[in-house]
Amino acid sequence: MATRKKNIRDEFLFALVLGAAVEGAAKSVGISKRTAYRWLADPDVKARLCKMRGERLERSSTMLTVAGLEAVRTLLTLQAASMPAPVRLGAAKAILDFGQRLREHVDFSQTLAELKAKMGSLCPAAEPE
């Protein structure tokens, strides 16, 4: 019984990770809205949800990074001398703009990592399963 409840809870949390509202996620797994909110009040459940969201975000980030490498190749191709001047100019502007934004993001990420190391994680650790 405990395993079934855990599976239903994980399905509920996964629905939330995918963007469902609490009421919709509860309905999709066959629990009441009251049960859903009771589960979400539990620190261990909150930690599990936070962990699941983090994992999903990490996977999405990896996929975007891979796609980003292909986008950079495309922009570099558009800078070839054989391309019309307006195309080369547009590619150059895009590269400079994205490069600056990426630099700012990297700087911010490093600063955030340093702050987290000093203050502890913002996402509470889940209990080992």
Protein model, in words:
This protein has 2 domains: 59 residues; 44 residues. By secondary structure, the chain is an all-alpha fold. Helix 1 packs antiparallel against helix 2, helix 1 packs across helix 4 and helix 2 packs across helix 3. The model has no long low-confidence stretch (mean pLDDT 89).
Provide tags for this entry:
129 residues, mainly alpha, 2 domains
Q: Helices and strands in order, then pairings?
A:
Elements: H1 2-17, H2 22-29, H3 33-41, H4 43-77, H5 85-119
Order of helices and strands: HHHHH
For the biggest sheet, the summary is:
none
Structural class, by secondary structure, is: mainly alpha
Which oligomerization state do the chains in this entry correspond to? single chain
> Rg to the nearest angstrom?
22 Å
**Unreliable residue runs:** none
Strand content: under 5%
Percent range of helical residues: over 70%
Concise structural overview:
Helices cover 80% and strands 0% of the residues. It is mostly helical and 129 residues long.
